[in-house]
Design goal:
mainly alpha, 3 domains, two-stranded antiparallel ribbon, elongated, disordered C terminus
Length: 441
């Protein structure tokens, strides 16, 4: 799809380069330049998309001027080929750049798809519509595939293997000393009688075996002591120093701790999608705002709906399936006082949101999430930076947002619009460091 955008515009008669392939090459080079710009400044993705969608985009819009300057760098004489600013050519270039950038960065894809789902139905696309349908569907499939994977509940959970390197075997050496035989003989002789075979006194047993019956008692006692003393002396030499097992046990405890933590993390990650869905059902059924700490029933209907969009945005990740927007739509319909068929101009919804005290957190978040671009941009730019709070007329709104100010929306549609813009703004605020699934480290 990314390779044939310009060709499809040419085939539909929307742009004309006079059959000159060299001129088409200049357009493709400009597409590459603008795709690089998007990857460096992804916050421009919504503005690029809102201009690319709009056949009536104003020539003086900053994005038009930026693209025209990029085109002139690659094709200095383009003004001789086209009469005036070639808005149609620039829109085709912007679309192609968006497709190329989204192919490398899913978050730019989020901004593109959400902008398309909001604004494109209200644009006079005419014979471009077939191109848009294909492009949006192609990018949305890629973005939704990633979102579904992140929200999925696996059929099984694989715990990591315990990583532990057993310590080396402890070598215990006990130096067993030999019995001192000479010392033992001396002690035995002393136990046997008062002198040895050479007539030397033993200073031991004072009796001889045939002298009286006290000899046996004296002999046995002295012999036992003699043997015990010699054996004890040998045993003292063989004492083994205490073995310190604290380090191996600490290593084992650390390995077990890390293994349990990794296992719990695996379980938590695997069940995150289920937990998220459970929390969202609880939120929808309770109809209670976690940010405002008030029941949605107590607020004006349109205010409650926008606050629900903000609260849902805070509870879900950047990559969320398209069904999450449908979930919000149904959640808003559950507000008891809501008339599901009642519609109001989008400008009226915006003016109300600009002054609602309950939506101050939304306006603060919008100021942080979106850049205050001078030209075309999301509704959040007006909410967050207060541009045109008192002076924005219908023409000004059309120039800034890209859709007619009287465009009627129901309350659920308005809430869904804000939710999509919040998701897109958060995605592109994270910068170009967010790559495609599979290329992330």
């Amino acid at each position: 799809m990314a390779s044939d955008i310009l060709i499809r515009f040419l085939g539909a008669g929307l742009i004309n380069v006079g059959g000159d392939d060299a001129k088409l090459d200049r357009l493709k080079e400009t597409v590459g330049d603008l795709a690089v710009t998007l990857k460096k400044m992804p916050f421009k993705a919504s503005a690029f998309a809102l201009i690319a969608f709009d056949p009536e985009a104003p020539e003086d819009d900053p994005i038009i001027k930026e693209a025209a300057e990029a085109l002139q760098k690659r094709w200095a004489t383009y003004v001789n080929t086209f009469s005036g600013t070639p808005v149609a050519v620039i829109r085709a270039i912007l679309l192609d750049a968006l497709v190329h950038a989204a192919a490398e960065d899913d978050k730019i894809g989020v901004a593109f798809v959400t902008s398309a789902r909001n604004a494109l139905p209200f644009m006079e696309a005419g014979n471009e519509r077939g191109i848009w349908i294909d492009v949006v569907a192609d990018i949305e499939r890629s973005v939704d595939a990633r979102a579904e994977a992140e929200w999925a509940m696996p059929s099984s959970i694989t715990a990591p293997a315990l990583s532990f390197e057993a310590p080396k075997a402890v070598s215990v050496v006990a130096p067993i000393e030999k019995v001192d035989r000479e010392a033992l003989k001396t002690h035995v002789l002393a136990a046997a009688g008062p002198s040895n075979g050479r007539g030397q006194p033993t200073e031991g047993n004072p009796h001889w075996p045939n002298s009286n019956q006290n000899w046996s008692q004296e002999f046995s006692t002295r012999l036992a002591d003699a043997i015990a003393d010699v054996v004890d002396a040998a045993g003292e030499e063989a004492n083994v120093e205490p073995i310190d097992l604290s380090d191996p046990l600490k290593s084992l405890a650390q390995a077990v701790t890390e293994h349990v933590a990794e296992t719990l993390q695996a379980v938590t990650s695997a069940t995150a999608g289920l937990q998220r869905r459970t929390n969202l059902i609880w939120w929808k059924e309770s109809l209670f705002s976690p940010s405002a700490r008030v029941s949605y029933r107590e607020l004006p209907t349109s205010t409650a709906a926008v606050l629900m969009a903000f609260d849902l945005h805070q509870q879900v990740p950047t990559f969320s399936p398209a069904s999450v927007s449908a979930f919000l739509h149904e959640a808003v319909l559950s507000i008891p006082s809501l008339d599901p068929a009642a519609g109001r101009p989008i400008l009226g919804f915006l003016e109300e949101a600009m002054v609602s005290p309950e939506l101050a957190p939304l306006r603060e978040a919008a100021a942080q999430l979106v850049h205050d671009l001078a030209g075309r941009g999301p509704v959040l730019t007006l909410l967050g930076h207060g541009s045109g709070r008192s002076t924005l007329d219908e023409d000004g709104f059309r120039a800034r947002v890209g859709v007619p100010a009287p465009t009627p929306l129901t309350v659920p549609q308005w809430a869904t619009w804000i939710f999509r813009e919040l998701q897109a703004a958060r995605a592109t605020q994270m910068g170009a460091g967010a790559k495609k699934r599979g290329s992330e480290s």
